[in-house]
Amino acid sequence: MLAVAVAGVGAVLAVEVPLVAAGRYSAAVLVAGAVTALVLFEFRRRMAPVDVDDQPPGMEAERAEATARWMARTESLISWADGTRGDWDHHLRPLLAREFQQSTGRRQGLDPAETAAAGEVFFGDLWQWVDPECVQRSDRAAPGPGRDVLDRILQRLEQL
Length: 160
Prior knowledge:
Layout (H helix, E strand, L loop, with lengths): L1 H20 L3 H23 L9 H25 L3 H20 L7 H12 L23 H13 L1
Helix pairs in contact: 1-2
């Protein structure tokens, strides 16, 4: 904005000084008015609110692509809930445990017993599916808890 003002004043002076020195006062007034109008239009253009429709077409395409990637990732994560216990332990448990720890401000490793106690109080019987220490190394082919359990866990996490 300051650059537009400085450029406008500079343009008026650069044109008016020679015209006034030559005795062409009416031309000086006309040119000064035209330059002032251009500067005011530029101020108005720069101060106008940006309309979403004025964004380049690439921005809309980037948003659509980001939304599509998010949807694909979310659908993939939800599908792991209907998989095996190994799928749950590998894909969902770390994500849910991290979300719980970030939401409560508790970091795993500082005091795992305190984290487990807080998880049991908050999640109740669902804590076994969030607890990062409860990964089962054997019987990974057993069925996972399913979407109902995932939905209940996510509802509890939303309460935080």
